[in-house]
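Possible regression after last week's pipeline update?

I re-ran a chain I had predicted before the update to compare outputs. Posting the input and the new output here so someone can diff against the archived version. Not blocking, just want to make sure nothing changed silently.
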Amino acid sequence: MPEKDIAPLAGVRVLELGNYIAAPTAGRLLADFGAEVIKVERPGTGDELRNWRLKKGSVSMLYRTINRNKKSVVLDLRSDAGRTAVLDLVKQCDILLENFRPGTLEKWGLGPEVLNAANPDLVITRISAFGQTGPLSERPGFAAVAEAFSGFRNLVGDPDRAPVRVGVSIGDSIAGLYAAFGSVMSLFQRETRRGTAVKVPLAERVIDVALHEAMFSMMESLIPDLGAYGDRRSRVGGRMEGIAPSNAYVCKDGASIVVAGNGDAIFRRYMETIGRPDLGNDPSLQSNAERWERRIELDAAIGVWTATLPSVEALRMLDAAGVPAGPIYTAEDIVNEPQYAARNMIQSFDVSTGEEILEGVGFPGIVPVIGGTSLPIRTLGPDLGEHTQEVLGGLLGMDADEITAASNPERTLA
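New output (post-update):
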């Protein structure tokens, strides 16, 4: 099947009321696989992500990336006409995505009951810091707060200093993944009941994604280990609790490599490779639990070996021995890596900053792969309001005056 024909979500229409990263990530995932995603942006400024990591011009590469394959429509949700347009769009959509502070849609008269009245089949996916219920539900919070609240941040970094943050907004992105999964799951449930008398009730069509819970769900056995063993996990730097030897090591050329030689059989080959068969054959190092107790000793021995070799040679030897290892890549390394190229994972576009066109800019491909390589990105994140006329005029049949009223920032709540 040609790549352009691979679109599992073709025919699904999504209304995205999201801002920043979480809901737009969910919208991007749905759009990547063929859904028509209509992104509603505020007049004037649009999604604030347009200005995040902005190096030049008026539209960031972050916005162009996260909002690819979507349509942008400007609507003023503070106005009667803007809210009416949203309800009219809802009637034409399968899924609504939003990540406002809980209560905001209700304040605007666009709560789930109102949306459901407009479209009794609508899947409503809501993302917030702490969810739609519970004592903290109304508290605002970005992913940084949620990552800390989930227990995740407490495990990132070295034990002798304050916790650190990973270099991407992982909390927002994981919440976006859950939101996309929840949306498709609910849509599947809805479709399996088509033609039957059993309809999916509104309560089951409201997908409630909390940022902190999305991160909490990634914490593996953090809580069971506490309850079962009284184990209170702490930061262990580049290691993984209870897994050894697995760490990053500096080579002779100054580059670092990651080696995960913690499998029992792998460990013995690993120690042979670094010239320490005594460690590989040591009866007290034959399980992960035992090796974890001597992790400092093992890391020191490995570090002595890597310090004598260029990173390329160290990786060659480890690969020959069947020891999982790899380089720690920079952006430049990724762009030049044949593995990424072979699967179409870096796709080049001429892209506008809002002031000039930059030629041949690489963007990350679509995941997961279907059909052998990453599907082609159809369009980058749109200009503000680029599709307002197409969607409001074409889909809803609004005339010029109605479109102006719906997207006019001067019209506010009475």
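Follow-up from reviewer: compared with the archived run. The two ends are 54 Å apart (CA to CA). Marking as no regression found.
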